[in-house]
Amino acid sequence: MNKAFSQMRQTGGNRSVDEITQGRRLRRMRKADWSRRLVQEHRLTVDDLIWPIFLCGGSNHSEPVEAMPGVQRFSVDMAVRQAERAAKLGIPAIAPFPHEDLEFRDVTGSHVANPDNLINRAVRAIKKEVPEIGIITDAALDPFTSHGHDGILRDGIIVNDESVEMVVRGALAQAEAGADIIAPSDMMDGRIGAIREALDRNGFNDVAIMSYATKFSSAFYGPYREAIGTSGLLQGDKKTYYIDPANSDEAIREAEQDLAEGADMIMVKPGLPYLDIARRLKDTFAMPTYAYQVSGEYSMIKAAGANGWIDEERVMMETLLAFKRAGCDGILTYFAVDVAERLARGI
């Protein structure tokens, strides 16, 4: 095109635009709303949304998550009401995460296996009152450990196999409570296969597994850690089990391993900084692929919107559409309710 315009200048501008483009005017289908809609390649619908919610103790109680404007923790009874709200909007599934009191945390995260922990009580209550909504639970240990890690910490090392055993116990407790999908985010080797075998052995053949197959050692998780109460507990970092942000081939190997062990769907976390990973996973495996628009992504959009630096609603919708363009079948996002309400209004 630059050569064509150079020739145009050299000949005194005698060539027409149609001669330069050979009749290919790409703006034709952008000229009107109806034509733009007619050729739109990707669409975001309510069916693409999974809503992560946070749980806390007590009853008839909610409390704000300071680092995540607009996000709250809910007691179990109020979480049921939120699930009803999501179901009425057509959101297919929710993903509850607990803020457990310190008295329920220990070095092994053993409370994950307690049938009466916050997650399991919420799952039972929601399934009783809102059976039509899907529930996706995380069997990782970080909400239950006194050190904030996703595995068992021994002498400064996250021990893999013991951690897997505890994660499996948590997964079984969640399945027993009524979880539809187990989504372990701990990144321990072998946890997908161990969970699948345990679920099948205990009669939970229909409980699916969404693997956090490519969870990166990211700086975008900070607000989430405040939400579940681990930000002040974490000792060291998680680089020995999360993936290095510089590595994409390793992410492919992780996903391949999890699928071989029995994962039904795979997830990329965080979301926007890793759209290339989502695209590669979808193109490579053609499996149901999801992304988690994590707390840091959410809070940045909210903060910039509150300061008037961006149009928050437009950016919200644009980022979620980017996940669809990258090949994602769905997105875990704290914007889920806002988006569902907007879509219901036809905006």
TrEMBL record:
The keyword Lyase applies. One of its GO terms (biological process) is protoporphyrinogen IX biosynthetic process. CDD domains: ALAD_PBGS_aspartate_rich. It catalyses: 2 5-aminolevulinate = porphobilinogen + 2 H2O + H(+). Pathway: Porphyrin-containing compound metabolism; protoporphyrin-IX biosynthesis; coproporphyrinogen-III from 5-aminolevulinate: step 1/4. The keyword Nucleus does not apply. It holds the Pfam family ALAD. This is Delta-aminolevulinic acid dehydratase.
